[in-house]
Amino acid sequence: MNFKIKTVISLMVFFLLQGCIEYRDNPMCKELNYMTFEEFREKGIEILAPKEIKEAGKIYVYKNILFVAEKNQGVHVIDNSDKKNPNPKAFIKVAGNLDMAVKDGYLYLDSYMDLVVVDIKKIDSIKEVNRVNDTFTYNAYQNYNYGCDFNLSNGVIVGGDK
Predict the structure, then answer these.
(1) CA distances from 126 to 4, 7, 44, 56 (A)
(2) What are the start-end ranges of the E strands in 40-126?
């Protein structure tokens, strides 16, 4: 190879490696907070008072109830019996929730890698009735998509600088 080709190849390799070094040393990657899978599952979901919808995702209608997803946060429950005056009833806090479905009075939610089943037959007394572990593949990039190297043996990423 002639000198010019070697120089160009060397420079390309240098810049590629330089990018990798900066990427690996990204301070955002060092600020991740983990919760063990056991702790995450033990915590479960929370039924909270209604709250403002910041960024609506998928909307599911079941009878006179609207379920409005908020990506990775949970589901807003709204009584829509009076179409002119929807009545927020609750917020189901479900970490890692992206999707939902309803069948026979049960709300099925994903929570990162688990399937959570919620009894919604009595809208004023919503409760978790089942959790099926490892139904889905855990995607650590679901919340943190900047390409850090995650240590999945640490558990679920529950916070950190994005």
Answers:
(1) 70, 67, 13, 21
(2) 46-48, 56-62, 65-70, 74-79, 87-93, 100-103, 106-111, 114-119
Residue 20 Ramachandran class (φ > 0 left, ψ -120 to 50 alpha, else beta): alpha
Pick the closest to residue 32 from 155, 128, 118, 136 (CA basis): 155
Q: In the chain, what are the domain boundaries?
A: 1-26, 44-136
**C-alpha–C-alpha distance, residues 51 and 158, integer Å:** 21
pTM for the full predicted model: 0.78
> The tokens of 54 are what?
């910041």
Kindly state the tokens that stand for 149. Answer: 């190297």
Chain segment 84-116, per-residue pLDDT in tens:
999 999 999 999 999 999 999 999 999 999 999
- Would you identify the CATH topology of the domain 44-136? Thrombin, subunit H (2.40.10)
* 13: confidence class by pLDDT, cuts 50, 70, 90: low
* Structural tokens at position 10: 């060397």
